Amino acid sequence: MTDGREEPAELLRRAGLEVVEERETGALPPPRVAWRSVAAYDAVPTVAVRDDRPDAVAELNAQWHRLAVAHGVLGEHGDGDGEFLVHVGGSRAGTTAWTRVRLTERWDLAGVLGARPGRPEFVTLSPNGAALLGATCEEYDVWLIAVDRFAEHWEEAARTAARETPQEREAAWEALSWRIRPSEQVRRAWADGLALNGAAPEDVLHRLLGRSATLFRRRDLPSAVVDAAVVHRDRRVRGRLAEAQPDLTAEQWAGLLLDEPDPERRCALAALAADRRAELTGTGYRRLAGDPDPRVRAEAAHLPGLPVQLLTTLATDPDPRVRASACPYAWPHLNAPTRRELLADPDDGVRTAALLRHHEDHPMPRSVFATLGPRVQAAARCLPAPELAEHFSHHGDPALRRALASNPHLAEHRDETPDTNGDQTPDTDCDGTPEALVPGLPAVLAALADDPDDQVRLAVSVRPELTEEQRASIRTAIDPRQARHVLPWVAALHDDPDAMRRCAASSHLLVRSSVARARHLPPDVVARLAHDEDHFVRLFLAESCDDAPADLLLEVWRWWTGSFSHPGRPRNHRNFPRRELLRYAGDPLPRMRQLALDDPESTPALVESFSRDGAAEVRLRAAVDPRLSAASAVRLLDDPDERVRRAAAEHPQLPARVLIRLLQNPETALHAARNPALPVPVMHRLLDPATGAGAGGDALLPG
């Protein structure tokens, strides 16, 4: 008896099946197709066994083995050593894919692979997909159904379904009955699919405002649609627009902010605009800086383009929250009396903001630091007096030491540099070797460079004032797989060829990685980084640098599947090879194999061949190729890989009647609605009140 909670391997083991090494089965008809054949309303049993027989289990096992040998599921000789594929009904085996197995000496399929002994539900398939043998339970019998030339039947069924004349296609769309209303789930799927349909015209996109949040994931929205979203009556639409669209114009941002009646939402939008470093119109800046709600004015102070006159006005705002927010930005533009007022402000938050900013230019004594709340912020930003820097460098809190290690003002403590060339003997470690004090560094930095905390030493090692010799002498522990951020000081030098040459020669991974993020680099720097020993340096060069060479891009493609920050790279890079890719058509690596279809000399026949490839990613590449035949698009709707099935549902070669069936199914409705072959009138009908918005009930049916 099976148990839905049982591990697949354990279930098959109890049935006397040995799971053999996994191999690609994606080119074969998947289990869902096999079950359709076995459970079809017109299916006829090859053998029927009464389930009330006392020896039902033994008889079913014997009959299954006889048929498996006769029809080739087990191989020509049927000696029990042959491999075959199995799938257990009701997902009891916990998988939607075939499992390759072989019989052991004591096997019992009929007694284990079912709800109870003698009521089996499973399908078995020959490794080449030619022979299918399934066991399924009827009311009083168990049927064993054998299907010869199974894969051929599957292919022929797809070819039959794909046959459609232009007249039949037009008639299929016209024959739709819209009297049956779709379910809520299907309606939402249609709206989300149409929102991502590249062929949807502007008037359809307008109608999707307020119906699909997915719409704002698009980066190609017409400006008229964005403008309509800015003034949309539903505040959720306006909010989603601001959250999802990164390139709103100054006029659009101003419209979102100034027309928002709710002060709390205005505050949230202003914070989002500041975080995006958005620009506003002059009117937008003035209105936000004069907003009646102090929370909004406080957020307005963070806008990078806020005019100086408005910024200095906010620094003297009646509300302390606004003064504290504006103080750091307005400080360079304030006169001495105003600065003194802020330093003596009755509000703790304002005084703290003023003190932190004041001590970016004037040394902070330890006595002032003792009065502050945000100590880590002070350690990271302020110019510490010598005794405070010394205090920080030996502080028991590693967070303070990490902050100090990144403090840009430590480079000014040159007078604290120890004389390592005099009579003093540097301290030694327990093994007698000199302690890792870095020659030429201030004493505080030298101490931090030998800190027991890895992150403290790492922060010191990437400081811009270090020489390469100093940088290399600091012990660092960098996980090559850890996320890497571009060092700001290296990014500021991206347009300086000589600086890039020096940094590219660094022994430090983070320095070289930051160079590789430059959009343009001198040829010698590109050549050096393209052969860097660290594969993420090479990856960053492939993703970010427009000068990355073709051989590097091809090498990175072999092992990198892509990132959200640089979608499409390296394959969409301008230097990625476009010719002589047919040589990879037989490459053992699927990622390389699929590149053959990018070659302009590739043929529709190769597309068809790849649609039957054993690797899912190769079939996926074929599924998005416009040259794919309608028959193969229909066949791939049953692919075992969900990504391939989705791509097939979006293929424009699908016949109308197949597409209509997909639109009715909640599982496929979204991707069917993304199909660019949908006629525009049908897109509108999907959004009409009787079928799209505000209607409930069953899915549409073809007439």
Walk me through this protein's architecture.
With 703 residues, the chain is mainly α. Helices cover 45% and strands 6% of the residues. It is built from 39 helices and nine strands. The strands form two sheets. The protein has a seven-stranded antiparallel sheet, sandwiched between helices. Strands 8-9 form a two-stranded antiparallel sheet. Strand 5 and strand 6 form a beta hairpin. The longest helix has 16 residues, at 56-71. The chain is elongated and about 100 Å long. 40% of the residues are buried. The model is unreliable at 415-437 and 693-703 (pLDDT under 50).
Describe the structure using short key phrases:
mainly alpha
Helix percent reads: 40-55%
User: Rg from C-alpha positions?
Assistant: 34 Å
Main sheet properties: 7 strands, antiparallel
Overall residue-averaged pLDDT value: 90
Q: List the quaternary state of the chains.
A: single chain
Individual helix count: 39
Q: Please give the alpha-carbon distance between the first and last residues.
A: 45 Å
Give the neighbour order of strands across the main sheet. 1-4-3-5-6-7-2
Based on Cα principal axes, name the global outline: elongated
| Structural class label | mainly alpha
Which strand-content bin applies to the residues?
A: 5-15%
* Low-confidence region ranges: 415-437, 693-703
**How many strands?**
9
